[in-house]
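If it is no trouble, can you show me the amino acids of a protein and the tokens describing how it folds?
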Amino acid sequence: MKIILNLFLLFIGTNVQTWAVSVVPTKPVVCGQCDPGKCPMTSDKECLAGLSLDACGCCQVCAQRERELCDHPDAPSAKKYGSCGENLQCRIRPEVKTHQEALCECNDQIELCGSDGKTYRNYCHLMESAKLAKAEQQPIIKVYKRKPCDSPPEITVPPVNVVNQTGSNVFLTCEVAGVPLPVVEWIYQPSAGKTIVYPTDDDRISTLVRGGPNAHVLTSWLQIQTLQNTDQGVYTCIATNALGKAEKTAYVQVETRRDL
């Protein structure tokens, strides 16, 4: 009888323990009475996206900035990120397949030119810079025009030196940026002889220009087919628009192929 009683108590104890472990209630958020005097101090320099109320709806805290995680009803999370700031909207990221996640995105995605002469990717980017400038007592930044600021050409990816054998194909690449979009040409300066400006009617040496990878950026290529000794020399990529000119050079060295 004593053995049976012990087994029964062991059975009951095991099940009670299992129930206690598996059913753990979630601790609710306790807000209590709102006391604004106990709220943390915030500043424009800290809260560039503006202010929002905390989870209890009592204190003003820094709102989430552009591209920061945010609380969305369709993306539940154990961690509370907060609400998006001014001119921002919390949107689900469709590219994330493993779980649902939301980011703050600006409602106005048009590139802008600021009164400081800088181009901003959107209105929210400009407003953050404006708040920071105000907090640091710098000149006020406003929208100058709803398009990128005019800028002289800049060669962001210059051509590089090449060493190759006769009979090979050679590519030189030049990526440029500017507003208005620059015009690109190539100049060849041989070790001895006349300077040549490409493109020309030469079918063996050609140029190609394509927009991208970003707006106000284009990429130009110079292709030399069936490399010859006379192709050795300096090749210059020149980008020009109404505001100026930029140029970068590369040297093509030709080695005579020795067939075994």
